[in-house]
Specification:
The chain is α+β, with helices and mostly antiparallel strands. About 45% of the residues lie in helices and about 20% in strands. The chain has helices at about 5-15, 40-50, 55-65, 75-90, 135-150, 160-165, 175, 190-205, 210-225, 230-245, 300-315, 340-370, 370-385, 440-455, 470-480, 515-545, 560-570, 570-575, 580-585, 590-600, and strands at about 20-25, 30-40, 65-70, 105-110, 115-120, 130, 260-265, 270-280, 280-290, 320, 335, 395-405, 405-410, 415, 420, 425-430, 465, 490-495, 500-505, 505-510. The strands form 4 sheets. Strands 12, 13, 14, 15, 16, 17, 18, 19 and 20 form a 9-stranded mixed sheet that branches. Strands 9-8-7-10-11 form a 5-stranded mixed sheet.
Length: about 600
């Protein structure tokens, strides 16, 4: 069914990642239709366009989809939480009646005398304190269990205002008698004592367990010094419980609130900036924009432009912006923060991953929709990165293979427009070099190859890639010098260990970004040269190792000899075969060569 949708939709579906995330569907007027979660974005989103849907509303929505955007996250739980927040904040048309209508719970501390602590699935704009939401309900219950087992908080819904308590209309309940509550309802616990417990409870909910444990240890020591061993034992039990407990938000720490996060990735023509809006440790808004460079703008200029754009677009009032680097231009009443470790660094890395994913999806879609434009982009990028005078439309690579100088061969893969062209591949048997001399072998092969190119008027490459460091590159360069090709064709070497790029006469290597498309093309050439060379080397070694008397017959190839041995099992079997059997196996002319050879013996 995919072929019935637009080329643009097809290109998006082909380039979706196999990762957890959230997907958003838009119509032709860029109205948000639907937000969904997925353990595997590619499988889930593709299923909408490959299945027959019984639900008429669903069929109608799929027909309206004109664009698909995705947000990549690390886990399925992150996807669940992000989906929930996006649905609440963006209210897409087709999410009104959710099939998976989950409202994630929050922990609430009621704004009342002797505040209760419990969970709720409805967060309101009131004076109560809310912590969450918790995509993993088990984590939330673990938090509440630690609080209930270690702190004597009330669970009843009585009105415990001072005036009500003074009327003395209440009686202690079972919770008091089993030691779970100190009965503030009858004045057995003061409000200040109760609030000191709430102070520790808040820190536990926020994940500040280490600080709470430190304070409890101090209190335990003071109690022990005062010989109050029962109180010290209570503190010890709390410490043990907290040591075995971890409470963290699904995305990041809930204390990260009302914060903007931006990260950028760019190439020579375009910048991609991803924005996250963080509320209570969760991503409530995410968007990536593509900024076309006009005057070779820097990443700082692009990022500053994106900050203003996103803050206006989302009406952001954040006082803190998390960035990958410090900006020289300061914004009034806003602090920049460049994290190195921790939750904020986790958010920044996740932001970068989404910018990178957006860039890769755009380029992959471009490659499908307009392959010529994509090729032009890659060729220009390689020309810039490798300091070439022209686009490397034809690249030839070289790698040598031998075992202690025996069975020495060389392989030459050919790449046209950045892609392997296997019909142009060539391999060479080393003829003039004895022993394991890789430099001399490289010099021989380069001289033989480009002597033939010149003599026969074959296409000259714009770039030669040598698999090896400065030694192999220098040997190849000497052959080009003998052929008067210096300045007419570019040549580089790539060393395996650190992926160093060497240029003739320059002792300092070039280090390309590990994610660079230029490096990926060069690595592909190197790997193809190695693979093709190893294959040819093994074939030659096999032929040399398993030569028989049949290989001595003039006009009988290695392949024919191997076929005869397979059919007749041995040289003696071939010798005793009838004329009819030989003709049936290898034809009349070759059978006569075999018969004459053995008759002359």
């Amino acid at each position: 069914m995919i072929e019935f949708y637009s080329e643009f939709i097809q290109s998006i579906l082909k380039t979706l990642p196999d990762t957890p995330g959230v997907y958003q569907y838009f119509d032709s007027e860029n109205n948000l239709l639907y937000v969904g979660k997925a353990k595997n974005l590619k499988k889930r989103v593709t299923s909408y366009f490959t299945k027959e849907h019984d639900n008429g509303r669903l069929r109608l929505m799929v027909k309206k989809i004109s664009n698909i955007k995705t947000i990549k996250v690390n886990t399925e739980l992150d996807a669940l939480l992000l989906e929930n927040n996006l649905i609440k904040s963006l209210k897409p048309k087709y999410n009104i009646n959710l099939r998976d209508d989950k409202t994630y719970p929050w922990i609430i501390i009621k704004n009342e005398p002797f505040s209760r602590v419990f969970y709720t699935r409805q967060k309101r704009n009131d004076l109560n304190e809310y912590y969450g939401p918790y995509a993993n309900v088990k984590v939330m219950h673990n938090v509440l269990d630690v609080i209930r087992h270690n702190y004597k908080l009330r669970t009843c819904n009585l009105d415990l205002s001072e005036s009500k308590i003074k009327k003395n209309n209440y009686r202690p309940c079972l919770e008091f008698h089993i030691g779970k509550c100190l009965a503030p309802c009858v004045g057995k616990q003061s409000l200040s004592e109760y609030n000191s417990q709430l102070f520790e409870v808040r820190k536990i909910i926020k994940g500040d367990v280490a600080l709470t444990i430190k304070e409890l240890k101090n209190k335990m020591q003071i109690a022990a010094d005062n010989l109050e061993f029962e109180i010290a034992e209570e503190y010890k039990n709390k410490i043990n419980a907290l040591d075995n407990f971890q409470a963290k938000s699904t995305i990041v720490h809930p204390s990260i609130n009302n914060t903007d996060v931006l990260n950028i990735i760019s190439d020579e023509k375009t910048g991609y900036v991803t924005y996250f809006k963080i509320i209570n440790g969760t991503i409530v808004n995410s968007q990536t924009i593509e900024l076309r460079k006009r005057l070779d703008e820097t990443n700082e200029e692009l990022l500053l432009f994106a900050i203003i754009e996103f803050r206006n677009r989302f009406n952001s009032t954040s006082k803190e912006i998390i960035l990958p680097f410090e900006l020289e231009t300061k914004l009034e009443n806003i602090n920049y923060y460049v994290p190195k470790i921790g939750d904020k660094k986790h958010l920044l890395d996740l932001c970068y991953k989404n910018a990178l994913l957006y860039k890769q999806e755009k380029e992959a879609q471009q490659a499908i929709l307009d392959p010529e434009k994509n090729t032009e982009r890659i060729m220009n990028l390689m020309m810039k990165d490798l300091r070439l005078n022209e686009q490397p439309r034809r690249i030839e690579g070289f790698d040598n293979s031998n075992i202690q100088g025996n069975y020495a061969v060389s392989a030459m893969p050919v790449f046209i427009n950045g892609k392997p062209d296997k019909k142009e591949y060539r391999h060479f048997n080393i003829k003039t070099v004895e022993g394991p001399n890789d430099f001399a072998s490289m010099e021989e092969v380069i001289f033989r190859r480009y002597s033939r190119v010149i003599d026969e008027g074959l296409p000259m490459p714009q770039l030669i890639v040598i698999d090896g460091g400065k030694g192999q590159l220098s040997a190849a360069y000497e052959s080009l010098k003998k052929l008067n090709l210096i300045g007419k064709v570019a040549i580089i070497g790539i060393a395996k260990r650190l992926e160093e790029i060497f240029f003739p006469g320059d002792p300092i290597p070039l280090y390309l970004d590990k994610r660079s498309e230029t490096l990926k093309v060069i690595q592909h050439i190197r790997d193809e040269a190695h693979r093709f060379g190893i294959t040819h080397h093994r074939n030659k070694r096999s032929r040399e190792t398993f030569k028989t008397e049949l290989n001595l017959i003039k006009g009988i190839s290695d392949k024919t000899a191997e076929k005869l041995l397979q059919l007749f099992k041995s040289v003696n079997g071939v010798k005793n075969a009838s004329k009819a059997e030989l003709i049936n196996a290898i034809g009349k002319s070759k059978s006569e060569l075999v018969a004459n050879y053995f008759n002359n013996l």
